[in-house]
Write a structure and sequence with these properties.
Layout: E1 6-11, H1 18-27, E2 29-32, H2 49-65, E3 67-72, E4 80-86, E5 93-97, E6 100-106, E7 108-114, H3 120-123, E8 130-132, H4 137-144, H5 158-171, E9 177-178, E10 191-194, E11 200-205, H6 211-223, E12 231-236, H7 241-244, E13 251-255, H8 256-264, H9 267-277
Helix pairs in contact: 5-8
């Protein structure tokens, strides 16, 4: 696999007729649309200069380096995403129809992917029109090259890791009832609920390995509570437990490797992880 390719997400939630979106889908092209001009010079655009410049800079990078692209066409395909490749040297074109002028790039070696088979490609979508997609870069790269992900914790996305950490707490009867959805870009904790005694449970989940990042997350988790009755959990790589030391006695550290091993060492739970990772 070519590790030099960038992974890009593009959302076609643009104000153009649906038949124009169908044309893009049928021809396997991706497109952005800000104003009805063909130029890729952001200085030619009257509005949203920073957003336009960012988009064109990324498209030029894709042209220069190549990219694997996941293209969302939710207005015409609510149940699937288009995954394809931008080969090095692909030019930025201009699709003209009536008053509309879209800046386009041609995909090659494309595949249509159902969200039912790969829900991560729907739940982990970044905000904005076009961005590099680091959260699912590993999954998307393996998918594109038709390779199976290795059965390891690092094959999970951040959202998937949050799910199995919640399921781990639930199976250990540490949590019984969620007070709000898991994750959702909460700053200080990812899991918030009650145990069977109705004591509040807060948990932070992370792949981070950097000492400063870990300490900051531990501090934020500790500072997020207003009373000492709340039970706090911190899920992180095993090697980061040393950063906790004795500074956060109220926080219970559980390694993400321990959680993953808990699932794969049981036949029934292992099958669920395999389905999550699309491993046969």
């Amino acid at each position: 696999m070519d590790k030099e390719e960038i992974i890009v997400f593009i959302r076609h939630n643009i104000s153009v007729p649906k038949d124009l979106l169908e044309k893009l889908w049928d021809e396997k092209k991706i497109a952005i649309h800000y104003e009805n001009i063909c130029s890729t010079n952001p200085n030619k655009y009257k509005k949203n200069f920073r957003e336009v410049k960012f988009a064109f800079d990324l498209m030029h990078k894709m042209s220069k380096e190549g990219a694997i692209v996941a293209a969302d066409f939710r207005r015409i395909r609510k149940d699937a995403i288009l995954v394809g490749k931008i080969t090095k040297g692909t030019k930025i074109g201009c699709l003209k129809k009536n008053e509309y002028k879209l800046k386009t790039m041609q995909l090659s070696s494309f595949r249509e992917v159902s969200f039912m088979d790969y829900p991560i490609f729907q739940s982990s979508q970044p905000r904005g029109t076009i961005k590099e997609w680091s959260k699912v870069s590993k999954v998307l790269r393996y998918f594109y090259y038709e390779k199976e992900l290795p059965l390891e914790v690092k094959s999970l996305s951040p959202e998937q890791l949050e799910i199995i950490c919640y399921e781990f707490l639930k199976s250990k009867e540490e949590i019984e009832f969620l007070l709000q959805p898991i994750g959702r870009r909460q700053k200080d904790f990812d899991i918030y609920g009650l145990n069977k005694e109705n004591i509040r449970i807060c948990a932070q989940v992370t792949f981070a390995e950097n000492k400063k990042t870990i300490i900051n997350k531990l501090q934020s988790l500790q500072d997020s509570i207003s009373n000492n009755d709340t039970i706090l959990f911190f899920f992180a790589p095993k090697e980061t437990e040393k950063f906790k030391k004795n500074d956060f006695p109220q926080i219970r550290f559980i390694s993400i490797e321990k959680v993953f091993d808990y699932f794969i060492k049981d036949k029934s739970r292992l099958e669920k992880i395999k389905i999550m990772l699309n491993i046969s």
